[in-house]
């Protein structure tokens, strides 16, 4: 059974179709890269997958559930199995790192525990373990706003680790970082996904990284899938076409 | 900073939870059936027409006296404005209040079964006086027609709800065909009798109206410079101050409780030193009986002036 | 009316010639409207028709003023004053705590972002509905709430606490909702997307993000609560207001002044502590009015997530704000090292000290005030509420009532306009000498080489204006009204003067703060060009500050409108005086109608002030 199943999905913003008539399946264990220039519909696709957006037409199934037909409580239960990492990290800067990491628990924690933990951080061991895996255990009690961009992205990844979802979505996770950091972060993501047997869907602006770290690449252009193939089958010609067409448009 | 947030949350929540047990004692009053010692106190009050410190002292002595006579704890709760004393009587926070004529009627109209039970000997024939600053050149007059002389003068009442400081003076003015707009400027409300004396004496207002008893007491005590302010007119008599009791007290203390309170008040004897002090502070020789019907004139005037709806 | 100033036809047709500057800009239209309103407002004061000044009261006023030099300092009375001060403080703490708690809940429920989090797919107008609903408790003054609560809770401290907490809770809720809505929401969205329920998501994102602003505003509310607790004392909550009222009624001016000094001390110290703390937390403005631009700029920086951004509280600890730097330099000269270290330590520890104070003060206050909270849900309260509703209905208005109400409403409006005109102009005039960045040594308009004498004069002027502002705002408006009534006949003029003086104190300080937080670089650039001080003032200071001054004044006008009722209660004119008569006549139906009038009036003023403020942006 696929983890995600898009059936003839169209997403319009006003008159513009950000995604048009798209069908797609993603299976457990895959590492999928979404490539294409900005405005191609990569972010829209990811937002449809994690339930932020409900499509204008068609249906999105995630983990065997039709997202559009769930109550908000049911949808939340599905969303707990989907972790998302963002280009701008979306961390809460005035909070200490431990709280941002612990935010990964919030889908499961009862309210009293969430409140108590803000006063008295709970499950510090798991937070340290997660930070250890992303390589910055010493930052546990640092204030998030004092961290560099690469460190903040690691905290965001640690948050997803604590959330422990079946699938990780990453929306341009490295575009705010320099090339060196980018490779580190991507290597880290791949390592975590492979070790824990998770699924990864990542949108990238460089084909290099996609080829290096993913096993399936989907090319998007103006809201449509141009190609969808295993990394090995991706030819330079296909890529040239993806971006060249773009220039003409 | 998070810790700061946490502490703040806690410090907000703590007192809230802390008040929960705080309400327990009052709740236990009801079920503590075996200890009959804890009787709900009989609460008295008074309209704040005089210096509150004096009221506090006066009612302290009176509470002790009543407590002894009635065998129930008696408490005095100070109130800061006329309307609040009526409201507190209506909602049952005050069981018996020393009201003025108007406030007594207002209170009885809002509390079914409330009863006027006692007044001072002087209250059956009560007077207001109009006083004037001597610089104003207004001469004392006998007849209400003399009120004509007040036209074009500045004028102050006492409190809005005062019978002797506002209601009856306004009534007698209107009876004499005098419209309030004929004074100079808007009329003032000094809020109490002492303030009226001082403001007229100082010349802030040329004329004022107040309770004759307060005037006499202040003159006797030498607190008034009679070369600066004098009485120009004494109104006809009317009923004023009286004790009003809420009939519901019989449910708490027994059917004859109203009569017992009345008896205790009437029994106050000027020849017993402690009791003489109470009477003296009230400015009375004795308390005498009164009844609701004595105040129908006040009620009529109240309605005419618009203070009773 | 604001957005499209009429174009002069000439400018439209002449083609390539340099375009004529439009004559009717929005600003000028508003200026004209304001001047017209002030002129019209002078009519109902009766200034030109009847006697308004009561010369007979001058000696009394003199006695009052002279007593300021000989306050009653007997041990007995000092004890009373001390206890009253503590009472006022404790009531303010309780009122603030409850209003912040209410405001937090209400603010979340009123915010658009909350309902968007709960119903991500559909728009639900609950927030707006609640916003409209809470406008009513906001429009009614604390004092009126207090008088209402006496009717359902009886004689209990609860009356005063709720009297503050209900209207303030509604005000805090509105401000909090705006703050939450203006906070970047991506972190919230991120948590919601990973299946976190709205409430914990909010706790972990928006609340900590907006925390400093929320805290800063809560402290400002505390300053306001102190003033309100003093006013509520007048209806019998006890404390300084009550004692002041009593002393004023029995015309014991010496005692009155002792109490005034206690009030100044209380107000002054709370204001100073609160200001220091906000500065330490880098939220120097009391209210973020009309400051959307500034706020979004800051939000932009934080969402860009650059490390070590300037101006965050963390970096503040290391490099103190320039304002502080200036102040320390100005205030203590070059001060020796030990003192500096000590001050540094204190500065660092300030939040901890404040926290400790809060943690101690809140439970102590609640215990001391000792309100009977069981009354909130007791059946008696429900019965009494029923009684009040029964007494207040059905409402009927006759034509005569209508005419009277209209007249009084206009008078009240006029009173608020005159009050804010006085407060606004006076506030601006006093704000400049009261700002430490101006005439003090090291300030913008002080010469570089000043004699000791000039410096002393500058300092004396600074301290004197600050004191005047403190006195003005610390004395509650009804007390000012009673003082004004010495020399004016009852009417809207003494009311307007009283409100004007009180609000002048508040506005003057807010405006001084605006000046102190001014970006100095453009001014220094002008000065470096060799522009003389008056030109720097006209071309630099005024343009940089005027908009915000006006925004504050307009905001304060709304507050003035609310407060007209309390000066009315002590005998100044307008709807307030009618309310007093109705209160003492137990005319509940009439009361409802008058209050309705009052609420409409407040809404109207809010709307006009809001429109004017928007056109200022």
Q: What's this entry about, in short?
A:
Chain A is α/β, with parallel strands linked by helices and 249 residues long. Helices cover 38% and strands 24% of the residues of chain A.
Walk me through this protein's architecture.
The complex is a heterotrimer of chains A (about 250), B (about 300) and C (about 625). Chain A contains nine helices and ten strands. Chain A has helices at about 40-50, 70-80, 95-100, 110-120, 125-135, 150-165, 180-195, 205-215, 235-249; strands at about 5-15, 15-25, 30-35, 55-60, 65, 80-85, 165-170, 200-205, 215-220, 225-230. In chain A, a hairpin with a 2-residue loop joins strand 1 (about 5-15) and strand 2 (about 15-25). Chain A is globular, with a radius of gyration of 18 Å. By secondary structure, chain B is of the alpha/beta class. Chain B has two domains: about 40-125 and about 240-305, Periplasmic binding protein-like II (D-Maltodextrin-Binding Protein, domain 2), CATH 3.40.190.10; about 125-235, Periplasmic binding protein-like II (D-Maltodextrin-Binding Protein, domain 2). In chain B, about 45% of the residues lie in helices and about 15% in strands. Chain B has twelve helices and eleven strands. Chain B has helices at about 1-20, 25-30, 50-70, 80-90, 100-110, 165-175, 195-200, 210-220, 250-255, 255-265, 275-280, 295-305, and strands at about 40-45, 75, 95-100, 115-120, 130-135, 155, 190, 205-210, 230-235, 240-245, 285-290. In chain B, strands 2-1-3-10-4-11 form a six-stranded mixed β-sheet, with helices on both faces. In chain B, helix 5 packs across helix 12. Chain C has helices spanning about 10-15, 25-40, 60-65, 75-110, 110-120, 125-140, 140-155, 155-180, 185-195, 200-205, 205-235, 240-250, 255-280, 290-305, 315-320, 320-330, 335-370, 380-390, 400-435, 450-475, 475-485, 490-515, 520-530, 535-570, 575-585, 590-615. Helices cover about 75% and strands about 0% of the residues of chain C. Chain C starts with 8 loop residues before the first helix and ends with a helix. By secondary structure, chain C is mostly helical.
């Amino acid at each position: 059974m696929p983890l995600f199943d898009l059936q003839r999905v169209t997403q319009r913003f006003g008159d513009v179709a950000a995604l048009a008539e798209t069908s797609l399946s993603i299976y457990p264990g895959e590492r999928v890269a979404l490539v294409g220039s900005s405005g191609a519909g990569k972010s829209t696709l990811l937002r449809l997958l994690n339930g932020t957006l409900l499509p204008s037409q068609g249906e999105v199934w995630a983990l065997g559930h039709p997202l559009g037909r769930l109550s908000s409580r049911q949808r939340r239960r599905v969303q707990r199995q989907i972790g998302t990492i963002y280009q701008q990290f979306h961390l809460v800067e005035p909070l200490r790192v431990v709280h941002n990491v612990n935010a990964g628990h919030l889908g499961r924690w009862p309210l009293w525990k969430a409140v108590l933990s803000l006063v008295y951080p709970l499950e510090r061991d798991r937070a340290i373990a997660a930070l250890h895996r992303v390589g910055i255990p010493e930052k546990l009690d640092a204030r998030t706003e004092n961290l560099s961009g690469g460190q903040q992205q690691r905290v965001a990844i640690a948050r997803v680790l604590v959330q422990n979802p079946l699938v990780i979505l990453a929306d341009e996770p490295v575009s705010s970082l320099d090339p060196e950091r980018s490779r580190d972060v991507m290597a880290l993501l791949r390592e975590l996904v492979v070790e824990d047997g998770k699924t990864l869907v990542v949108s990238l602006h460089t084909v290099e990284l996609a080829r290096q770290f993913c096993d399936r690449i989907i090319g998007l252009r103006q809201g449509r899938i141009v190609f969808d193939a295993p990394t090995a089958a991706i030819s330079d010609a296909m890529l040239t076409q993806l971006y060249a067409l773009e220039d003409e448009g | 900073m998070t810790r700061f947030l946490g502490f703040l949350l806690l410090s907000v929540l703590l007192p809230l939870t802390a008040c929960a047990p705080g309400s327990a004692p009052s709740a236990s009053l009801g079920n503590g059936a075996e200890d009959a010692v804890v009787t709900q106190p009989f609460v008295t009050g008074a309209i704040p027409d005089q210096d509150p410190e004096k009221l506090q002292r006066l009612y302290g002595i009176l509470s002790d006296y009543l407590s002894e006579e009635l065998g129930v704890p008696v408490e005095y709760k100070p109130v800061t404005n006329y309307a609040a004393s009526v409201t507190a009587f209506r909602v049952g926070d005050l069981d018996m209040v020393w009201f003025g004529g108007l406030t007594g009627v207002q209170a009885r109209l809002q509390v079914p079964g409330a009863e006027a039970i006692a007044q001072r000997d002087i209250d059956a024939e009560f007077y207001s006086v109009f006083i004037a600053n001597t610089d104003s050149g207004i001469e004392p007059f006998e007849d209400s027609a003399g009120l004509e002389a007040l036209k074009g003068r500045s004028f102050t009442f006492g409190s809005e709800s005062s019978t002797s400081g506002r209601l009856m003076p306004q009534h007698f003015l209107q009876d004499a065909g005098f419209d309030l707009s004929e004074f100079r400027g808007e009329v003032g409300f000094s809020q109490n009798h002492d303030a009226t004396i001082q403001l007229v004496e100082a010349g802030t207002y040329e004329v004022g109206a107040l309770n004759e008893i307060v005037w006499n007491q202040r003159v006797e005590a030498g607190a008034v410079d009679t070369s600066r302010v004098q009485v120009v007119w004494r109104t006809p008599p009317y009923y004023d101050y009286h004790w009003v009791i809420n009939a519901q007290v019989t449910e708490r203390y027994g059917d004859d409780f109203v009569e017992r309170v009345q008896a205790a008040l009437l029994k106050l004897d000027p020849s017993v030193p402690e009791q003489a002090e109470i009477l003296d502070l009230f400015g009375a020789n004795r308390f005498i009986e009164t009844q609701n019907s004595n105040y129908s004139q006040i009620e009529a005037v109240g309605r005419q002036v618009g203070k009773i709806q | 009316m604001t957005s499209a100033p009429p174009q002069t036809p000439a400018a439209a047709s002449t083609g390539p010639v340099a375009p004529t500057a439009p004559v009717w800009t929005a600003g000028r239209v508003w200026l004209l409207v304001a001047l017209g309103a002030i002129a019209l407002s002078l009519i109902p004061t009766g200034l030109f028709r009847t006697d308004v000044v009561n010369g007979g009261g001058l000696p009394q006023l003199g006695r009052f003023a002279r007593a300021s030099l000989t306050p009653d300092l007997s041990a007995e009375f000092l004890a009373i004053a001390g206890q009253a001060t503590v009472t006022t403080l404790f009531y303010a703490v309780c009122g603030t705590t409850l209003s912040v708690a209410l405001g937090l809940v209400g603010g979340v429920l009123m915010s658009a972002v909350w309902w968007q989090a709960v119903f991500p797919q559909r728009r639900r107008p609950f927030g707006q509905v609640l916003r409209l609903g809470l406008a009513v408790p906001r429009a009614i003054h604390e004092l009126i709430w207090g008088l209402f609560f006496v009717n359902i809770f009886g004689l209990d401290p609860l009356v005063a606490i709720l009297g503050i907490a209900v209207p303030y809770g509604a005000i805090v809720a509105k401000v909090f909702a705006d703050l939450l809505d203006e906070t970047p929401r991506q972190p919230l969205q991120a948590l919601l997307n990973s299946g976190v329920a709205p409430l914990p998501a909010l706790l972990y994102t928006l609340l900590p993000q907006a925390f400093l602003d929320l805290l800063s505003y809560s402290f400002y509310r505390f300053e306001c609560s102190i003033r309100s607790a003093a006013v509520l004392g007048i209806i019998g909550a006890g404390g300084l207001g009550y004692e002041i009222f009593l002393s004023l009624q029995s015309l014991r001016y010496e005692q009155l002044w002792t109490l005034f000094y206690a009030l100044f001390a209380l107000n002054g110290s709370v204001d100073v502590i609160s200001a220091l703390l906000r500065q330490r937390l880098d939220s120097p403005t009391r209210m973020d009015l009309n400051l959307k631009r500034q706020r979004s700029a800051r939000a932009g920086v934080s969402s860009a997530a650059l490390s070590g951004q300037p101006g965050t509280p963390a970096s503040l600890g290391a490099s103190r704000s320039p304002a502080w730097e200036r102040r320390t330099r100005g205030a203590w000269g070059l001060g020796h090292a030990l003192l500096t270290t000590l001050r540094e330590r204190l500065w660092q520890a300030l939040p901890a000290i404040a926290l400790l104070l809060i943690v101690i003060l809140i439970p102590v206050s609640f215990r001391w005030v000792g309100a009977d909270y069981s009354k909130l849900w007791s059946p008696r309260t429900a019965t009494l509420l029923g009684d009040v509703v029964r007494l207040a209905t059905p409402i009927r208005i006759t034509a005569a009532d209508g005419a009277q109400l209209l007249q009084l409403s206009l008078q009240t409006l006029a009173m608020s306009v005159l009050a804010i005109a006085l407060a606004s102009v006076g506030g601006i005039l006093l704000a400049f000498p009261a700002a430490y960045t101006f005439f003090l040594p090291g300030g913008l308009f002080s010469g570089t080489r000043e004699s000791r004498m000039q410096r002393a004069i500058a300092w004396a002027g600074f301290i004197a204006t600050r004191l005047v502002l403190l006195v003005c705002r610390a004395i509650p408006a009804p007390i000012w009204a009673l003082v004004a009534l010495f020399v004016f006949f009852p009417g809207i003029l003494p009311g307007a003067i009283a409100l004007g003086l009180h609000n002048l104190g508040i506005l003057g300080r807010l405006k001084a703060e605006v000046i102190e937080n001014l970006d100095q670089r453009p001014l220094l650039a002008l000065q470096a060009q060799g522009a003389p001080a008056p030109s720097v003032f006209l071309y630099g200071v005024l343009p940089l500050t005027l908009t915000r001054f006006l925004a504050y004044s307009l905001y304060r006008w709304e507050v003035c409108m609310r407060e007209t009722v309390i000066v009315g209660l002590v005998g100044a004119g307008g709807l307030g005086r009618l309310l007093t008569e109705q209160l003492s006549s137990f005319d509940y139906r009439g009361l409802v109608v008058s209050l309705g009038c009052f609420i409409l009036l407040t809404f109207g003023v809010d709307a006009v002030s809001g429109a004017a403020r928007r056109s200022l942006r």
